[in-house]
Task: structure prediction
Amino acid sequence: MAIYHLEAKVVSRGVGRSACAAAAYMSCSAIYNDYDCIQHDYTRKQGLVWQQVFLPEYAPAEWQDRAVLWNAVEETEKTKDSRLAREFVVALPIELGKDEWQSLISDFIREQFVSDGMCADCAIHNTDGHNPHAHILLTVRPLDEHGKWQYKTEKEYLCVRDGEERGFTASEFKAAQADGWEKQYPYYVDKKKKEYLPPSEAEARGLERADKHPKSTKFGRQNPITERWNSDEQLVLWRSAWADTVNRALGRSGIEERIDHRSHAERGLNEQPTVHEGVEARAMERKGFVSDRCELNRQIKADNALLRELKATVKKLLQTVKNTIPAIAEAMERLRMNMTMLRYRILGIGKGRKQLTDYMEVVKPEYERYTGIIKSMKEKKRERKSLVAEKKETPIYQVQKLYTLSKKITELTEELEELRSEKEMLLNTMQCDESGISGIKKDLSKAEVNLKKLDDAEQRYKAELENAYREYAELQESAKGLDSNELLAARLELRQSFDAHAASTIQQIFGSNYDWLTLRDSRQYVSDLLHESDLDLSSVQKKLRQTQRESRNQDQEQPRQRKPKDRDYER
Result:
């Protein structure tokens, strides 16, 4: 089913990434990076479904070639830890097809990024058919109306006037200087101590300037557009916009499934985190929520209690059965009641097995994929670490070897980023974080053990049901010499009380988990098993009542013997 996943990352030189490498990797193409002279070739990579570059109005037309676009970005950023691009990884709904994916991702990019002045490079991946997702690579510098890069941050000087301090950029300072604002420079107050002062005050005190650099803010003043793009509030808006875009696409295709970017708390839902997210089962129970593990323990205890009661009933039954209609009727109805309760437990076990099986079918493949990704990431990290160490030890004159090592390191870095994105999507699918993986592993192991316990319990109950049916057949054989209608009438008089006792016993054992529909199905199964479904019980009762009336009428119609009177004797 469709899931919500939007992961935001930054492509930065500070962590060994490059915009050209990221673009080549996601588009499965080859791009030469002019900044570090490395050819990034990912043409053999599989899984590319679609790719396209989106440009705003003022961007140069030649930037439709992603190699030109991202080399322009690399050229503009000068420092060794520059932020080169912003990357989004979004999960695509599996209910839609390739054309719908292209449409919804294009709408999202044009509405949210291109319209705001960003250049966007997008690629859709679907390697295994179960994890369709898109990479969106965005520029982090805004463009002016001439298609030139604007600044990300600008130097901001801290100036003073009449004891008040305020920040001004270089363009703002000219006007501020006319209003009496002065920059502050470091001056030696004594041989070791420095202090920032305006030149007018320092000259009046005869102090020597220690440095030519004026006082400024630590990070400068961000471009307002860049500042907005980097804000947490903007990220929330983008996350919400992605959910809306996907839901519109699902609605157009007639699919009822919807996604939501908000947390359960924000949506006003009362669902608590599952054990997959590290919440202990007993802690959940104390809060009033049902834990799967505690529920399973209650089911096992209920199984044992019911089995003990049924065994005691059978033992008592064997001691009390006699060849009389009331005794045989009671014995047969008690066996029928026992078979009903046994069938109820078998049906309940079937439901429990289905829940565990469904859970394992969903979670186990995802967990195995996650462990495979972690293993692959560890191997690639070791390989990358080895190559980095080898590069450090390689002499600078071995240019070709350094080039080869740098290229391999960059490729491994991009592969690790792809694996991290896939790992995050899997965690999102499993609704947990990395700390909850151990809980999933434990749950899967316990689910396998519990499935075995359910299978064993089902075999026991089936054996008990067969034994009860065999005893019922023996009672039927011993009752062949009795009046069948009279025996059936005696059984019907007892049936209501036995049915009530069965319902009461099951309710007492299972509490809130009692299901009257399952009890009804169990009674119907036993009736079919005992061939009672074809009997018209109401007609049997009617016939018995008619026979009883006829017997009474015959007694009343017999001639009475006349009592002699006194005058008869006198005669």
Q: What stands out?
A: The chain has three domains: 6-147+231-252, 153-222, 292-539. Confidence is low (pLDDT under 50) at residues 270-279, 563-571. The two ends are 110 Å apart (CA to CA). The CA atoms of residues 392 and 402 lie 9 Å apart.
